[in-house]
Design a protein that fits this description.
Number of helices of chain A: 8
Keywords (chain B): Cell membrane, Membrane, Transmembrane, Transmembrane helix, Transport
Strand content of chain A: 35-45%
Number of strands of chain B: 0
Helix content of chain A: 10-25%
Order of helices and strands of chain A: EEEHEEEHHHEHEHEEHHEEEEEEEEE
Helix content of chain B: over 70%
Largest sheet of chain A: 6 strands, mixed
Bound molecules: adenosine-5'-triphosphate, magnesium ion
Radius of gyration of chain A: 25 Å
Main location (chain B): membrane
Protein name (chain B): Spermidine/putrescine ABC transporter permease
Distance between the termini of chain B: 20 Å
Shape of chain A: elongated
Largest interface: A-B, 25 and 17 residues
Oligomer: heterodimer
Largest sheet of chain B: none
Membrane topology (chain B): Multi-pass membrane protein
Pfam family, one (chain B): BPD_transp_1
Chain lengths: 360, 295
């Protein structure tokens, strides 16, 4: 069955505030797709449009190729797991799970079978008669998933469902969600502002900022080749250094970074000679020993933190640019201490250059 | 309670406060009621006979109601009409309360609440009189209905049950709207969304999610409306007489026209007992406890 979701030139405005800028995006059938972005960037608004709680001001939402314009929320093949779960507190666990089936007129015995099967799927066999208030946070979570799956949706919408859980449970639930997605083959649309969550679970991620989708890519591409400076600094940690472009050939760009000297990196998109650009280097790409062909930055160590397997350094350049560096613990030496000078080298292939002033 | 008050106000003031509350409760609430209970079991005698051999306790005053067919009919009509008023008020109030709590923007809700409350700044008698004018045989409502061609002859709303029902629904609507509004307000909007999302239409969403949540509010509203309706005097007197008599009017007559306080007290207690019975019934039906209602 085709359970793709297509945001067809969708715009969402509240009054004269545009919550979602014009977006054209297709989420494949059976894909685990995440929207990642800071609070207030419009993630929930996108889910609300897909599930039919609000109608886009312009454009259309298509599910399985069919336009959803005018289809009310209760007639859409979607099912949502809410940011706060929204289980029905006055019903038992089984009644919660069976609610969607009851609505569809499924007989009591069929409903019971379905809820037993789903309780087994979420590893909560025999909790059907419990009250919602008797469940732990993680159990509620799983009941919310079971309830949403009971109606056999084509598309499951998850609005930061793990945000209320503690770290350990969150990691556990990530694997479970992923397993459920594999088992059911349903399209998962997952919302989070936690990049770790988005990167570990998704087939593809859309990074959003202020109502605009910045980049859609698989997690590795997103990390290695961010297309905009927002993505570069939002996904993972990054050091941005501004400069003027003095050389740009095929995919290599050289920047004049004033007192920091000339620095080079791979270009992302078009970068023109004479324009301003930002060079991004990830903390783990710095080396203490320069090899031939490497570029170097001079800095003064501000802080050294030992984190077990690795060390993190905070350093400042002569231009008061703060840098963060991650080194393997074996590289530790007595000379790495507060106030000491340090030379930081990197391979040009490990840095990227994005046009514009960027924001870091 | 005393220790709390003492720690806040000191012992002198605490004793004073408790004392005043006690005087108020005992002197102005409990004793007069006990006096009425006492009255209701004694015959109505001339001052000279009080304390004499004829002054004995009996159930005679209570039996009067059951031997008087007309009074009994009015009694049951009052109860039945109050039930009707309560259900009509509920039907009118629930959609308004839901709209105010979940649909309207905060500004609109504030405006609507204000519009609902403003008429209640006016005295109840005056408000009822305004309905008297609206519902009059040659009044504006009939003029409107005639003008629209809904009826071809004016309707006689007054001096019958219709006028009383309309007047009472209007008089007590706030007592119904506010508890329900409060209850629905506290419902997480995502619950409604979740029900919709799982495929429920509006009726089922209300039936399974909103109403169960609002039950304590609905019960509170029903109890208040019923009590006020059953104990109402002004509305039936103004909008119903002479066609529709209310039991309160009979009680009034015993006290102030018949001069038989003992008989009046017995009637009043019968009404009270039925009302308490009704509350108990409503609480049973809605499966709510006193604690839920006090919320
Ligand atoms: N019904 C509405 N009316 C007006 N503005 C709204 C409405 N719903 C959302 N917004 C605005 O749209 C923007 C995006 O909101 P949205 O709830 O989609 O954010 P989000 O990305 O889900 O944030 P969070 O991570 O905090 O949940 C916000 O600025 C919000 O104020
Ligand atoms: Mg949100």
């Amino acid at each position: 069955m085709d359970s793709s979701v297509h945001l067809d030139n969708t715009v969402m405005q509240f009054g004269d505030f545009t919550a979602i800028q014009k977006t054209d995006l297709t989420i494949q059938s059976g894909e685990f797709f995440s929207f990642l972005g800071p609070s207030g960037c419009g993630k929930t608004t996108i889910l609300n449009m897909i599930s039919g709680f609000i109608d886009p001001t312009q454009g259309d939402v298509k599910i399985g190729g069919k336009s959803m314009r005018g289809v009310p929320a209760n007639k859409r093949p979607t099912s949502m797991i809410f940011q706060n779960l929204a289980l029905f507190p006055l019903m038992t666990v089984a009644e919660n799970i069976e609610f969607g089936l009851e609505v569809r007129g499924v007989s009591k015995s069929e409903r019971k079978k379905a809820s037993d099967r789903l309780l087994e799927l979420v590893a909560l066999e025999g909790s059907g008669t419990k009250k919602v208030s008797e469940l732990s946070g993680g159990q509620k979570q799983r009941i919310a998933i079971a309830r949403a799956l009971a109606v056999e949706p084509q598309v499951l919408l998850l609005d930061e469902p793990l945000s209320a859980l503690d770290l350990k449970l969150r990691q556990h639930m990530r694997t479970e969600l992923k397993a459920i997605q594999r088992k059911t083959g349903i399209t998962f649309i997952y919302i989070t502002h936690d990049q770790g969550e988005a990167l570990t679970m998704s087939d593809r991620v859309a990074v959003m900022s202020a109502g605009r989708i910045q980049q859609v890519a698989d997690p590795i591409t997103l990390y290695r080749d961010p297309q905009t400076s927002f993505v570069a600094s939002f996904v993972g940690e990054n050091n941005g250094v501004k400069g003027g472009v003095i050389e740009s050939n095929s995919d290599l760009v050289v920047l004049d970074c004033g007192p920091l000297g000339k620095l080079a990196g791979r270009s992302q998109g078009s970068v023109n000679v004479g324009a301003d650009a930002t060079l991004f280097i990830r903390p783990e790409h710095f080396r203490l020993q320069a090899e031939s062909g490497m570029y170097s930055l001079q800095a003064t160590i501000d802080e050294v933190n030992f984190e077990g397997a690795y060390l993190t350094l905070n350093a400042n350049t002569a231009t008061h640019q703060a840098l963060s560096i991650q080194l393997g613990t074996h590289q530790f030496s007595e000379s790495l201490k507060k106030g000491a000078p340090v030379s930081l080298s990197y391979h040009e292939q490990d840095a990227i250059v994005i046009a514009g002033e960027g924001h870091v | 309670m005393f220790s709390q008050l003492k720690s806040r106000f000191g012992s002198g003031l605490a004793v004073g406060i408790i004392g005043m509350i006690a005087v108020w409760l005992i002197g102005l609430v409990i004793l007069p009621q006990l006096l009425m209970v006492d009255y209701s079991f004694r015959p109505n005698l001339l001052p000279a006979d009080i304390g004499g051999p004829k002054d004995a306790y009996s159930l005679t005053n209570y039996e009067t109601l059951f031997s008087n067919k007309i009074h009994l009919a009015i009694f049951f009509k009052t109860i039945w009409s109050s039930v009707l008023v309560t259900s009509l008020t509920l039907m009118v109030s629930y959609p308004i309360a839901f709209y105010l709590a979940k649909v309207a923007t905060p500004q609109k809700a504030a405006l609507c609440l204000l519009l609902l409350i403003i008429p209640f700044w006016i005295n109840e008698i005056l408000r009822t009189f305004s309905w008297y004018i609206i519902l009059a045989y040659k009044g504006p409502l009939n003029a409107l209905l005639l003008g629209l061609g809904v009826v071809d002859r004016p309707v006689r709303f007054l001096s019958g049950d219709g006028g009383v029902l309309i007047g009472m629904v209007y008089a007590y609507i706030l007592f119904m709207i506010f508890p329900i509004y409060n209850a629905i307000e506290s419902l997480d909007t995502n619950q409604i969304k979740a029900a919709r999302n799982l495929g429920a239409g509006w009726i089922r969403t209300h039936w399974r999610v909103v109403i169960p949540h609002a039950k304590p509010g609905i019960a509170t509203g029903c109890i208040m409306t019923f009590m006020l309706a059953a104990g109402s005097y002004a509305v039936p007197a103004l909008l119903g007489s002479p066609g529709s008599r209310w039991f309160t009017q009979i009680i009034y007559n015993w006290f102030f026209e018949g001069g038989d306080w003992n008989q009046g007290a017995a009637y009043a207690f019968l009404l009270l007992i039925i009302c308490i019975g009704f509350i108990a019934l409503v609480m049973r039906v809605f499966k709510v406890g006193l604690g839920d209602i006090a919320k």
